[in-house]
Write a structure and sequence with these properties.
The chain has 154 residues and is α+β, with helices and mostly antiparallel strands. The protein is 25% helix and 40% strand. The chain has three helices and eight strands, in the order ββαββαββββα. An eight-stranded antiparallel sheet has the order 1-2-3-4-8-7-6-5, with helices on both faces. A hairpin with a 5-residue loop joins strand 3 (44-49) and strand 4 (55-61). It starts with a strand and ends with a helix.
């Protein structure tokens, strides 16, 4: 895990033991390098967190469709927050068809907004999850969108 200011990266396979990798800790309990670089695990992920608690998580899956995976995210969120309200997302952005859900729910005394968006890029399914207290999410919406557009253009 790399953590500096509000940027936090987690390289799922190399730093953490994963059943998908076929390896774990090596000699002297140090992480063993993956046998096939990034192809060793699914999902690969990067997460960013702001000082005020907003999160941006990117996951790259080798199996599952954007629709299936965003439905699974919605189902998981509903299990945790039964009063969750959700609206479907369907949009074209930079030539990619985005599907997913905008979700609003109560957590303690806060109203929280979360979005799960998915799209297909080659053989991989990309899932982007954002979450923040509703006012912060609205304030960061353009930042989240700019990060997504930057990703789509690479």
């Amino acid at each position: 895990v790399f953590s500096n200011l509000w940027v936090r990266f987690r390289l799922c396979c190399w730093l953490l033991s994963s059943p998908h990798c076929g390896h774990g800790l090596g000699k002297n309990n140090l992480p063993a390098p993956p046998s096939s670089h990034w192809d060793c695990c699914s999902p690969r992920s990067v997460s960013l967190q702001s000082p005020d608690g907003a999160i941006w998580i990117l996951q790259i899956f080798t199996e599952g469709s954007p629709h299936e995976l965003t439905e699974q995210a919605l189902s998981t969120m509903r299990a945790e927050y039964p009063d969750l309200e959700a609206e479907p997302i369907l949009e074209q952005l930079e030539g990619y068809e985005m599907v997913g859900f905008e979700m609003n729910f109560y957590c303690l005394d806060f109203v929280v907004t979360a979005e799960a968006r998915g799209f297909q890029r080659g053989r991989e399914t990309i899932i982007l999850f954002t979450q923040a207290e509703t006012r912060d999410h609205a304030r960061l919406e353009n930042v989240f969108r700019a990060m997504l557009i930057g990703l789509l253009r690479t």
